[in-house]
């Protein structure tokens, strides 16, 4: 199985979504998993983003892997920040025992980074692909071939939507909690 994962932050929660699919060109998911942790998110630290997201990505990957063997994980971010400088994806690859490929799909460049640019759809702004456990040019071709007519592939967007959709608590539950 291939999975796309994304993390979103709320005031008092961190939500991670994993979207599973069988083939790189699939248009719909075969598995969707959402993990919500009622914790205060760690502050953002430039160049050390992994400190904030890695525990949550690892939890989602572990949950999926209990039921389905995973071949590759696609993250919203960089695997390598610069040559020899690991980013979130390289650290995920390491904690997974380097047994699965991790592909990073970033929307913004990291200064001095060497990601492979991938144009999709009618967009003139490339996605930036890096990888661990797989040749990054091969990873870029796989991302280019993912389903969807827009810059962001369909199933990466689905992971983002799932995480965002669960990041905001239900206002009725919040209201009820405040009234008790």
Kindly describe this structure.
The chain is α+β, with helices and mostly antiparallel strands. It has a single domain, classed as archaeoglobus fulgidus dsm 4304 fold. 31% of the residues lie in helices and 27% in strands. The protein contains five helices and nine strands, in the order βββαβββαβββααα. The protein has a seven-stranded mixed β-sheet, with helices on both faces. A hairpin with a 2-residue loop joins strand 1 and strand 2. Helix 1 packs across helix 2.
Topology (SSEs and partners):
Blueprint: E1 2-10, E2 13-21, E3 31-37, H1 50-65, E4 72-75, E5 80-82, E6 85-86, H2 88-95, E7 101-106, E8 116-118, E9 127-132, H3 136-144, H4 154-167, H5 171-179
Helix pairs in contact: 1-2
Number of domains: 1
CATH class: Alpha Beta
What would CATH call the homologous superfamily?
archaeoglobus fulgidus dsm 4304 superfamily
Q: Mind summarizing the main beta sheet?
A: 7 strands, mixed
Number of helices: 5
Supply the helix-strand structural class. Answer: alpha+beta
Shape: globular
What is Rg? 16 Å
The side-by-side strand order for the widest beta sheet comes to 3-2-1-4-7-9-8
- Percent strand equals 25-35%
Say what the CATH topology is: archaeoglobus fulgidus dsm 4304 fold
Low-confidence stretches: 171-180
Number of strands: 9
Beginning-to-end CA distance, first to last residue: 44 Å
SSE string, helix = H, strand = E?
EEEHEEEHEEEHHH
Q: In percent, how helical is the residue content?
A: 25-40%
């Amino acid at each position: 199985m291939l999975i796309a994962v994304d993390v979103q932050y709320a005031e008092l929660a961190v939500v991670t979504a994993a979207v599973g699919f069988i083939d790189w060109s699939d248009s719909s998911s075969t598995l969707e998993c959402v993990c919500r942790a009622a914790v205060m998110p760690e502050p953002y630290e430039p160049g050390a983003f992994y400190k904030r997201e890695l525990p949550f990505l690892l939890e989602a990957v572990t949950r999926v892997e209990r039921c389905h063997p995973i071949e590759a994980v696609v993250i919203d971010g960089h695997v390598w920040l610069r040559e020899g400088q690991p980013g979130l994806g390289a650290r995920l690859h390491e904690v997974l025992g380097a047994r699965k490929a991790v592909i990073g799909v970033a929307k913004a460049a990291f200064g001095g980074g060497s990601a492979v640019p991938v144009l999709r759809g009618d967009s003139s702004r490339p996605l930036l692909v890096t990888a661990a456990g797989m040749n990054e040019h091969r990873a870029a071709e796989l991302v280019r071939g993912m389903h969807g007519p827009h810059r962001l592939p369909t199933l990466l967007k689905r992971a983002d939507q799932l995480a965002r959709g669960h990041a905001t608590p239900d206002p009725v539950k919040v209201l009820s909690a405040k009234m008790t």
